[in-house]
C-alpha cells in the first residue's frame, strides 16, 4: 500500500512543490477528508429524513477504525 501511495505522491511532487511540513501532515489531512465524507453522508440523510446508506461510508469508517493509512489507497480488498 505504501509503495502505491508513494508512486502517486511522486507524480504529484513532480508537478507541484510540496513542503516537507505538509508531507508530514498528509495522513492527518487524509483522515479529515474521510471524517468529512462520513459527516456529510449523515448530514444529507438527516436533511432528507432518510436512513443512512452504510455502504456509502463503509470504506471511510473501516480506514479510520482500523487505522488503515492513506485511505486504503493501493490496498486489496
Model description:
With 77 residues, the protein is mainly α. It has one domain (2-72). 71% of the residues lie in helices and 0% in strands. It is built from 3 helices and no strands. It has helices at residues 2-15, 20-48, 54-65. Helix 2 (20-48) runs antiparallel to helix 3 (54-65). The model has no long low-confidence stretch (mean pLDDT 86).
The termini sit apart by: 12 Å
The rough form would be described as elongated
Largest sheet: none
Label the structural class.
Answer: mainly alpha
Total count of domains = 1
Count the helices. How many? Answer: 3
Order of helices and strands: HHH
Compute the average pLDDT. 86
State the assembly state of the protein chains. Answer: single chain
**What value does the Rg take, in angstroms?**
15 Å
Parts with pLDDT < 50 across at least 5 consecutive residues: none
Number of strands: 0
Percent helix: over 70%
Work out the strand percent. under 5%
Outline the fold blueprint:
Elements: H1 2-15, H2 20-48, H3 54-65
Summarize the structure.
By secondary structure, this protein is mainly alpha-helical.
